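FAQ: What does a multi-protein file look like?

Like this. Sequence, then tokens, then the next protein.
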Amino acid sequence: MPDLPDRRSGEAQAAAAVLMVRPEHFASNPETLETNRFQAAAAPSAAATDAARREHDGLAVRLAAAGVRVHAFRGWRAEPLPDEVFPNNWVSLHADGTVVLYPMLAPSRRRERRRELLEALAERYRVTRVVDLTALEERGEHLEGTGSLVLDRPRRVAYAALSPRTTPGALAAFAAEMGYEVVAFRAADRAGVPIYHTNVLMALGTRFAVVCSAAIPDATERQTVVEGLQASGRIVVDLSFAQLESFAGNLLELRGRAGPVIALSARALASLAPGQRTTLAAHGRLVAADIATIERLGGGSVRCTLAEIHLPDAP
């Protein structure tokens, strides 16, 4: 495999704070069904919105109780934004004060980008620059934040599964702006359909990684990814397709007051084998929340609902 850079940035892998958006109008988004096989089609309903709000609130409470700083904002009331509960797709917030805005595939998702949320965060955190990649949408290039990108932040390596939502031109633009080495590969579900976001099949913690290596069909690309994770010093937990389908790859390490926290869904936790649970628990407190409605209709899980805040504190 090619040697990966070890550009230690001083940025921690895990953040101590997260941005969340409480859904105002939650529903299955017809614009994203074609590229997201994890998402079920359903007509909009008040019951689905109410359930998604309860699930969002339950997750936020659990994270706050574990000592994670949660910045939860109300959803957009002016128009329905069915996927606004997934803010990590439109923004990432970095330790050097950089905010990155991303080009999104679905037109409805582009309207999730809300400057007033960033302005509210800027009252608490220091923002030094904004990297706006959204003009790439006009060229058919897309990159949906830390859905498309699984970042090894200390080493500045970005893992990315290519798909209609994660395109080479946008990856190159991100790498140039942020100084990351990109490890791009193809990934597919057990039926051979491309997986829409990288963070469905893998996640990186400070000392561990989870990945469904079977979802990377090319042997050379699979070896590059797995050996890259191992070379970073992480213990690798390999997931099955069944666990991937239960969102076990869609977890996120955070920093709580009493130590590391690993946030994941109740469904994901239930899918893990005892040995896998033990391995992950050695690296952080497992904090699980039942977000079944969000998973079923939105096609994303806990990690997707969390935009981690690495920004430095404001002076």
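And here is the next protein:
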Amino acid sequence: MAACRIDERGVSRDLGDGKSESVEWAELTAVWIVTTADGPFGEDFFWVLQAGSQGCVVGQELAGDLLSRLQRLPRFDNEAAIKASMCTEEARFDCWKGEPGEGLAAAKLEARN
């Protein structure tokens, strides 16, 4: 079974076959959401994080605190994320585009009171 880790270094996902994919916050350059028509009985919402030629895809069920980290990125498009969450067909929603280093804003979560 696939597992996902989201921490101050970045995002990594074990694919369950000995392979993995990962993106470090410092290298992050783009974030988008892909939706499918597979819901409600299949997973239909996927975060795609890109860093150069590397990427990591995280299904909503494994996303944990990913959104709260991504919302710290400068110019993150919350409206695109909201539209994606309501979508029931195949679509792509661009949420953020930046330069290497800007993704470090997602590295640490602020303490909650």
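Q: Is there any per-entry metadata?
A: Some entries carry free-text notes. For the entry above: The chain has a mean pLDDT of 90.
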